[in-house]
């Protein structure tokens, strides 16, 4: 799947500036909180209709529609733990009948994106803590957790999971995570 914030920027003709910031954050070269706040500030004023249009165009990882029913039939719980926007993750949760979605909430007022971010920002530490808390609530042992991620902000979560998978990940993630999917989707 695409990076939602980058796709909004592309729609607005601002992709060069925002994608560069996203890339640096995903590579661990920029503080995630500061980069997220900066990118959202640059997108302030975006109409909700643009957000919806971008969400409608976003694609799933190849094979995900095949594997989701299989893992759900086996009793797995599914969750998105994302440093992106809840307008995207909640829609994905509903569309694909996922069990949970955790991400960043940015206020939309008068059908326009503001720069009012609900704290805490879903950064690396909060992604891991969300995974820990969810597993505890569901009584799932750490060794039974499978997590996928691609950016530096996913590393603590991937390292905590019983099986962390670097999925088409940045080099900093591939260097640290043994299980990897680098060239294909989930098919």
UniProtKB/TrEMBL annotation:
What UniProt keywords are attached to this protein's entry? Amino-acid biosynthesis, Hydrolase, Magnesium, Metal-binding, Serine biosynthesis
Which cofactor(s) are needed, names only?
Answer: Mg(2+)
Q: Looking at the keywords, is Magnesium present? A: yes
Q: Which InterPro entries match?
A: HAD-like_SerB (IPR050582), HAD-like_sf (IPR036412), HAD_sf (IPR023214), PSP (IPR004469)
* UniProt-listed Enzyme Commission number(s): 3.1.3.3
Name the domain of life this protein comes from: Bacteria
One BP term from GO: L-serine biosynthetic process
Pathway this chain belongs to = Amino-acid biosynthesis; L-serine biosynthesis; L-serine from 3-phospho-D-glycerate: step 3/3
Name a GO CC annotation attached to this entry. Answer: cytoplasm
Q: Which reaction does it catalyse?
A: O-phospho-D-serine + H2O = D-serine + phosphate; O-phospho-L-serine + H2O = L-serine + phosphate
Alphabetically, the GO molecular function entries are: L-phosphoserine phosphatase activity; magnesium ion binding
Top enzyme class = hydrolase
NCBIfam families from the xrefs?
A: HAD-SF-IB (TIGR01488), serB (TIGR00338)
Q: Which family does it belong to?
A: Belongs to the HAD-like hydrolase superfamily. SerB family.
Name this protein carries in UniProt:
Phosphoserine phosphatase
């Amino acid at each position: 799947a695409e990076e939602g914030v980058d796709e909004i920027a592309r729609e607005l003709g601002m992709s060069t500036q925002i994608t560069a910031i996203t890339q640096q954050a995903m590579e661990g070269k920029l503080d995630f909180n500061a980069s997220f706040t900066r990118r959202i500030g640059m997108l302030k004023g975006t109409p909700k209709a643009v957000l919806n249009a971008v969400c409608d165009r976003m694609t799933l990882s190849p094979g995900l529609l095949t594997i989701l029913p299989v893992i759900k039939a086996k009793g797995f719980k599914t969750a998105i733990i994302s440093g992106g926007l809840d307008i995207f993750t909640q829609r994905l949760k509903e569309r694909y009948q996922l069990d949970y979605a955790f991400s960043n909430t940015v206020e939309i007022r008068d059908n326009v994106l503001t720069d009012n971010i609900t704290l805490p920002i879903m950064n690396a530490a909060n992604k891991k803590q969300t995974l820990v808390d969810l597993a505890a609530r569901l009584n799932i042992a750490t060794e039974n957790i499978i997590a996928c991620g691609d950016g530096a902000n996913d590393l603590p979560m991937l390292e905590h999971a019983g099986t962390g998978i670097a999925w088409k990940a940045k080099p900093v993630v591939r260097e640290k995570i043994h299980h990897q999917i680098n060239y294909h989707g989930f098919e």
